[in-house]
Design brief:
heterodimer, A: alpha/beta, six-stranded mixed sheet, four-stranded antiparallel sheet, 20 helices, elongated, B: alpha/beta, 23 helices, 9% strand
Chain lengths: 620, 631
């Protein structure tokens, strides 16, 4: 962990708008406070003037002055709000980007434990809470404080005694309101929680509407909803009563304050030391006290929330990556197929220490392909992740192209090792962005079209309404999602999006891998059967991708193994069998051969032909 | 003549708790009108102070006391109003929400087609649209109060100085016009800011959802650059949003100041003459502040009526096609202060026991999205299939012209590749998806609405992406079905969940679901199976268990169900989606689907001889299953 002071500094650095902007904002805030403070002075002169028989011309001049002052005060307030929200957005955008960048560079170990929803909360939710507080702080707390101090100062200069009483009274009201707010908070929180529960329940029920209907439980769920609605009502009623009671008391309190000041003014005026205009002035100033109080106290709660948000932001910034890059990285060979070598590799996740891999040794010459076979959880995926350097082994070494992955830089690894995962991660973005992953410089459109043709998506591309600019529909995760243009019927102005079927998503992932021309490909094959036509296209794409490259294939189906040179059978984190596919298949006592028998696939010397039942295997 | 939906809903919602609405409304109006008194007292006070009246300090102090008393009255009115109002408010909200919810969960016809893309979106209708409608009815009261204040204030003010009063109408009209003019602009800008904000959130979600792809491609910098673009656009919109909102506020406040300035200007000569007193000035200043409320309230009402029309329309769309705003706002029994009674007192009697279920020429969901879920990934959401179901024209794979016959006592399996339409088929049979053509018969009788007919205890369904709610396990299993714990224990045993239950901290009282104890995918699936079995259906329909259950557990489950069925304590007939060999070997009858069409029906042996697709599916068993079990 990094000390909290460091993360706090990072947060402040992001939020600080720079000296000039801060200065402009300060000026605006002062103007927004001073201008309204000056207006009542003119009312006083007007009233006294009118009573004292001043010339109409002068009175009109004063009235015009009042108008000008009042309106420029409003404009200053608006300007302050505008400046403050601009600066707050700039600052929090910087913070959001810093956080996203930091989080993105954390290891998969971190991300594996967090849902995208959680990350949204950290990177966006907390920052928004902070942004709202910053704006509110500048406008409500700072400006209100200034106004309050200003009012008190002016009243004190007008009449020391009345000012003193107003000051004492403000302290009293302030204390009361802070207490009152503390009283109201628990019940208000309860209402919010009840409402959240109501809508949380509702969301679950709507998502499970089919389960409910199919179980004939509709009326029951409606009754349960009534029950929850009743709870919300009772909590709300209690909170509203407390809130209303406090509002009532506050109102009376401020009225009493006004009455006291007015009574005093009347008394002083009768003794002859105060003009009528001054009485009006005192009245207006007393009226100005309430709003800043209310605003500041509202912010107390926001302050708590913002503090919590800052703490969580600090927590995220305090996370450190565990993969360290060397000072002088040795790049992987820039061209050609890469060799793969795992020496006595052990691995366990940092949080539980349970060994996932034990003394794994694998060796692949450039251009060879390896099939990893094993039950779910045996450690196949972990081996793939070590080869991609998403983790470092706890013992032993992973060498690609002769270079220990710990001695090279990540950029070189990402450039030279391609990967196609089972769950294809697609983005709600254009086809182009999905292929290049938002890197416009990676490949031109012609190259993209060529690659799509190469993986068998040429016709698909031609069918898209806007070609490479077509947006892919959100949620077509590709992990089984379907084809189907989802022209939104709600008539929004969004561009038409297309859904992507599981097969198409797989092929897009192949296209991604082709674009960088890697020397080693890690391929996690889809575990479910697709329709025969799509399977054919995918198999063709696999063949093309593996041609001239080293390949590590996590196989879920035996037929896929027909294309590999070597097979490793993994069981509970160990390589229990490793050798050339042909040799293992020919040895009746091998696990691999047992597997083939269990699946009812005939084998023998001619296993390649028997296995390669699929028509794409013509290259044999 | 047809009543406009907004008028209808307005009247209905007033009526949900009419007495409360009336009393509350009266109190609110009073709350609005009381400042009239405050103004009069201020006038008296300042006239006293300025010596316009024969002044005694005593009288002044009495007026000060009256000032406090009036504010006290106002505070009390507020408190009383808020003691009455929430009952009306919650009654109105609950009426709309339960009517829509009841329709989604019980009305005829499939509900899937009515729900929007995501359940979050549906919830926002239940929350925001309902709020908008109820607030519209609520603002009716504000309108009455503000108008009452306005009328009285104008009468008093014109009795003092009609000219100044008349001139004040000008700035008030300006505020009204401004509110009207700006409201559409504000809404547009606000909508844009919200959209762009949502875009940032969605992008961040995607970014971390696809973090593996980004990292393995080394695209971090590019992805952040895109975030920067999204951020910048959102900032622009958000600042503009804030500015326009402030603009309206400022305009209103400026109008108050402008009005006070106008009063000063116009009253200056009269004040010099003594016709317009300092007290009059205080009264005018005080009323002007409250009067600007009038155009704001009118403007808001003018904006809320069309907004409510849209909200009502959107809510109605959640309901069945034959339902209208009339059904949405229908008065229904409410239980805000007491516990509602159970929906089902006793298990409904059985009459027509299943002899045979027939499906004839069924075509459904010919759009592809519905075939999706054959491989549940936990992330795949039924919302996806719902979305697609709305676009039956788009290309894809549903099922076409499927016929099958499921006699009592049989074990029928539907099998096929991903996207072949297995799930679509069972969902269409059960009426969860609309069928474009074809008929389903129960003992030879066509079923008019399968969605409400094929329910317990005739049929029960274990879905692809099973859902547990954040409630106790007992509530999740029963969902109001009136059986005792013994019957439940039997169902749990059949579903092979009995041993898992022993390990749960509070047994059946353990809170599960998204906000409770996390169960494994297999446990969730078996729990939903237990839920179906507890209802002792004649026909049990099960969509693919293989995604979450290992082979042995699935075997155990089929064994137990088969055994119970033989002894008459389980479902007599099974219709199951599966591609596992273990299940296929048990089946009396297998239906093979390929791209939405039946390509083979028969026993496993027959099909392996005659159906190439069956051979393909059978031969290429996944490695995980073919693997000899470790000992």
């Amino acid at each position: 962990m990094v000390p909290a002071s460091h993360t706090r500094r990072t947060v402040l650095q992001c939020l600080w708008p720079g000296r000039r902007s801060a200065f402009a904002l300060g000026i605006a805030i002062v103007a927004a406070t001073v201008l309204p403070l000056a207006a009542p002075q003119l009312t006083r002169r007007f009233v006294d003037g009118a009573i004292g028989g001043e010339e109409t011309r002068v009175l009109i001049l004063i009235a015009c002055g009042y108008l000008g002052l009042a309106i420029s005060g409003q404009v200053a307030r608006m300007l302050t709000a505008w400046l403050a929200s601009r600066l707050a957005w700039d600052g929090t955008n910087r913070l959001r980007e810093t956080l996203a960048e930091h989080a993105l560079h954390l290891d998969m170990g971190y991300h594996g434990k967090r849902t995208p929803g959680e990350m949204i909360e950290r990177v966006d939710g907390d920052v928004v809470a902070l942004a709202e507080f910053v704006v509110a702080f500048l406008l409500d707390v700072v400006a209100s404080m200034l106004l309050l101090v200003g009012v008190l100062a002016v009243v004190l200069t007008v009449d020391l005694r009345i000012g003193g009483i107003l000051l004492a009274y403000c302290v009293l009201m302030g204390t009361f309101m802070v207490r009152a707010q503390r009283m109201a908070v628990p019940s208000a929180t309860r209402v919010r929680e009840k409402f959240a529960a109501l809508f949380g329940n509702l969301e679950e029920r709507l998502a499970g509407a089919e389960d409910i209907r199919a179980n004939g439980a509709g009326e029951h769920v409606v009754r349960r909803f009534h029950r929850t609605a009743g709870e919300v009502y009772r909590a709300d009623l209690a909170a509203e009563r407390i809130g209303a009671g406090l509002f009532g008391v506050t109102t009376v309190g401020f009225a009493a304050g006004t009455a006291i000041v007015l009574g005093l003014a009347a008394w002083t005026q009768q003794t002859g030391t105060l003009t009528v205009g001054t009485a009006v002035l005192l009245f207006q100033y007393t009226q100005m006290v309430r709003t800043p109080f209310e605003r500041m106290i509202d912010q107390l709660q926001q302050y708590q929330k913002a503090l919590a948000a800052v703490a969580r932001i600090g927590g995220l910034l305090g996370e450190r990556r565990t993969l360290h890059e060397p000072d002088k990285p040795v790049p992987l060979p820039e061209r050609g197929a890469l060799s793969v070598r795992l020496d006595d590799v052990c691995f366990s996740y940092a949080d539980d220490g349970e060994p996932v891999l034990l003394d794994v040794n694998l060796d692949l010459a450039p251009g060879e392909t390896l099939g990893l076979v094993g039950r779910t959880g045996s450690g196949k995926t972990t081996i793939a992740r070590l080869i991609l350097r998403l983790y470092d082994p706890t013992k032993g070494s992973v060498r690609i192209g002769g270079v220990d992955l710990r001695d090279t830089d990540l950029a070189s690894i990402r450039r030279r090792i391609g990967v196609v995962t089972q769950d294809v991660q697609l983005f709600a973005a254009s086809v182009r962005d999905n292929l290049t992953l938002f890197r416009p410089g990676l490949a031109g459109d012609d190259r993209l079209r060529e690659v799509l043709r190469e993986v068998g998506l040429g016709e698909w591309l031609a069918s898209l309404p806007r070609g490479l600019d077509t947006e892919i529909a959100p949620h077509s995760s590709g992990s089984g999602s379907p084809t189907g243009a989802s022209g939104d019927t709600s008539g929004s102005d969004e561009p038409a999006t297309v859904g992507v079927s599981a097969g198409e998503a797989q092929l897009l992932a192949f296209a991604r891998a082709f674009l960088t021309d890697p020397g080693l490909v890690v391929l996690d094959e889809a575990s479910s059967r697709l329709d025969p036509a799509t399977e054919l296209r995918i198999e063709a794409a696999v063949d093309r991708l593996l041609a001239g490259r080293t390949g590590v294939l996590i196989a879920h189906r035996l037929s896929s193994l027909s294309r590999v040179d070597k097979v490793a059978v993994i069981e509970e984190g160990r390589v229990v069998e490793y050798g050339s596919r042909a040799a293992l298949a020919a040895d009746p006592s091998s696990r691999f051969a047992t597997l083939l028998r269990a699946a009812g696939i005939p084998q023998g010397d001619d296993s390649r032909v028997a296995l390669g039942a699929s028509p794409t295997k013509a290259k044999g | 003549m047809r009543i406009h939906p907004v008028v209808l809903v307005f009247a209905r919602l007033v009526g949900v708790a009419r007495a409360r609405y009336m009393v509350g409304g009266l109190l609110w109006s009073l709350f609005f009108v009381i400042p009239i008194l405050t103004g009069l007292i201020l006038k008296g006070l300042f006239d006293q102070i300025s010596g316009q009246r024969a002044a005694t300090l005593d009288a002044t102090l009495w007026l000060c006391a009256a000032f406090v008393a009036v504010e006290m009255l106002r505070g009390l009115t507020f408190f009383l109003a808020l003691s009455v109002w929430p009952y009306w408010w919650h009654s109105a909200e609950t009426t709309l929400r339960t009517n829509a919810l009841r329709s989604i969960l019980t009305a005829r016809g499939p509900a899937a087609t009515r729900l929007p893309h995501s359940s979050g979106e549906a919830v926002s209708r239940f929350r925001d649209d309902v709020f908008d409608v109820v607030r519209m009815v609520d603002s009716g009261v504000d309108l009455v109060g503000a108008v009452a204040f306005g009328v009285v204030a104008f009468v008093i003010m014109s009795s003092i100085d009609p000219v100044v009063t008349l001139v004040l109408v000008v700035p008030l009209t300006i505020v009204l016009l401004l509110t009207r003019l700006m409201s559409s602009v504000i809404r547009r800008i606000h909508g844009r800011a919200r959209r762009l904000g949502a875009a940032v959130t969605a992008y961040i979600g995607e970014l971390f959802g696809g973090v593996l792809a980004i990292k393995t491609a080394g695209a971090e910098a590019a992805v952040l650059e895109r975030l920067r673009t999204h951020n910048a656009r959102r900032r622009q919109a958000a600042v503009k949003d804030r500015l326009t909102m402030d603009l309206l506020d400022t305009a209103t406040s400026a109008t108050v100041e402008l009005s006070i300035g106008l009063v000063l200007l116009l009253a200056a000569p009269a004040m010099r003459r003594g016709d317009f007193t300092v007290g009059d000035l205080a009264l005018f200043t005080s009323y002007v502040g409250w009067l600007t409320m009038l155009p704001r309230v009118i403007g808001r009402m003018l904006y809320r009526v069309p907004q409510s029309a849209v909200a009502i329309e959107r809510m109605t769309r959640l309901m069945a096609s034959y339902e209208t705003a009339d059904d949405l706002s229908r008065h229904t029994k409410l239980w805000l202060t007491e516990q509602p009674p159970p929906a089902l007192e006793a298990i409904p009697p059985r009459s027509d026991r299943l002899q045979v279920l027939e499906v004839d020429g069924l075509t459904a969901g010919y759009d592809g999205m519905s075939g999706v879920s054959s491989q549940a990934t936990g992330t795949s959401d039924p919302a996806g299939s719902r979305a697609a179901a709305r676009n039956p024209d788009s290309r894809g794979r549903g099922v076409r012209n499927v016929s099958l016959r499921v006699p009592r006592g049989s074990f029928t399996i539907i099998t096929g590749a991903v996207g072949s339409g297995k799930t679509t088929l069972v969902r269409a049979v059960l009426g969860l998806l609309p069928a474009t053509s074809g008929v389903v018969r129960w003992n030879g009788q066509p079923i008019a609405d399968p969605g409400t007919f094929l329910v317990p205890n005739r049929a029960a369904y274990v879905g692809q992406v099973p859902r547990l709610f954040s409630e106790t396990l007992r509530e999740n299993l029963l969902l109001g079905w009136p059986v005792d714990d013994e019957a439940l224990a039997h169902a749990l045993r059949l579903a092979a969940l009995d041993r898992d239950l022993d390990e749960m901290p509070f047994g059946l009282d353990t809170v599960v679901g998204p906000r409770g104890v996390r169960l494994s995918g297999g446990q969730v699936q078996r729990a939903t199976a237990a839920r179906a079995l507890a209802r002792q259906p004649d026909l049990l329909v099960v969509d693919d268990l293989s995604s979450a259950l290992d082979v042995e557990t699935e075997e155990l489950l089929w064994d137990r169900i088969a055994e119970a069925s033989r002894s008459g304590h389980g479902p007599s007939t099974l219709l199951v989606v599966s591609h596992r060999r273990a299940a296929l070997r048990r089946a009396d009858q297998i239906v093979v689907l390929d791209r939405g069409e039946v390509v083979g029906v028969g026993s496993l042996d027959e099909l392996l001889r005659t159906c190439p697709e069956m051979r393909r599916l059978w031969a290429d068993e996944s490695i995980g299953e073919a693997q000899p079990q470790p000992t």
